[in-house]
Write a structure and sequence with these properties.
globular, homodimer, about 180 residues, 11 strands, alpha/beta, Dihydrofolate Reductase, subunit A, 8-stranded mixed β-sheet
């Protein structure tokens, strides 16, 4: 049984996941009248659990929507001690060493992990724990913002295995780690 | 007659055109036994002239190869006063306001301009003078380096019109400015 850690995220053409004020309205710059989900449902249906940082968790909690995930969510946090009551049974807090966290989740049967949140993705990449990067490029140059990628202590090589254009404007590239 | 300014360049997955030491050996990380040119000849055959910065010019001059361009080259420089003898007839120095330079070249019949060099591309983008970005993503994360893009005083919107995978590993996305 092979386990994978996968990223599915959108960035601007210049690699930002949010603008300099944290804004993400530009994610919707391309009209999407039929609410195409750009493969998100297909992607999550292959994932066994979602691992996200506290910031992403709190951002999602702040959206005025139903809880959007069908799979168990693990929130990486050293400061959060307890899951708010309304998320009990859906969300679990995990902390400690990332390799150990992944190993424990794999042992519990969560083999394919969807990794989300800027700092979380960066931490996983720093430990070379990412196998797949599915990046949807929103075709705008923001000029400044919060970058998806950050410094690494080693070069990480991937290959692009699939590329799709959506809505005649967005492009989604799927990169797989080559080791 | 419509004039365009086009970029054709390769970057790492994290958006760098050179590593932190200026190195570009990672550009060749994917074996290319048949020397596929990834559409470069097709691209330049549609261009009337190449505009590059002095740094790029000096880098190309330093390669131990035949002069690689079939089209006239204009080097943006305030410090270079004269073209080295061996490049006379192939290279011309231009300087001053970018909009004026483009206008002058267009008047001379050079309508489709290939814009090359990191700082030159950034200067053209800052003035919203780029119409096409053809970006070949070399699928590695360098972690640090010389970025293709920089700060902008306004957001610039594009759309992705074509995406191609080469050598089962690289992806080339063609973005067109939407105004």
């Amino acid at each position: 049984m092979s386990a994978t850690n996968q990223v599915y995220i959108a960035t601007s053409l210049d690699g930002y996941i949010a603008d300099k004020n944290g804004g993400i309205d530009w994610l919707n710059m391309i009209p999407n009248p039929d609410n195409l989900d750009l493969g998100f449902h297909d992607f999550t249906s292959k994932m066994d659990a979602l691992v996200m940082g506290r910031t992403t968790f709190e951002t999602v909690c702040g959206f005025d929507i139903e809880w959007p995930y069908q799979i168990p969510v693990f929130v990486l946090s050293n400061s959060l001690k307890e899951v708010p009551a309304k998320y009990k049974g859906k969300v679990e807090i995990v902390n400690g060493d990332l390799n150990k966290i992944v190993e424990d989740l794999n042992k519990r049967g969560y083999l394919n992990l969807y990794i989300d949140g800027g700092r979380t993705i960066q931490s996983f990449l720093e430990r070379d724990l990412i196998d797949d990067l599915i990046i949807t490029t929103i075709p705008c140059l923001l000029g400044e913002g919060i970058p998806l990628f950050s410094k690494l202590s080693q070069r990480l090589d991937f290959k692009c295995v699939e590329s799709k254009i959506f809505l005649n404007a967005l492009v989604q590239n799927h990169f797989v780690r080559t080791r």
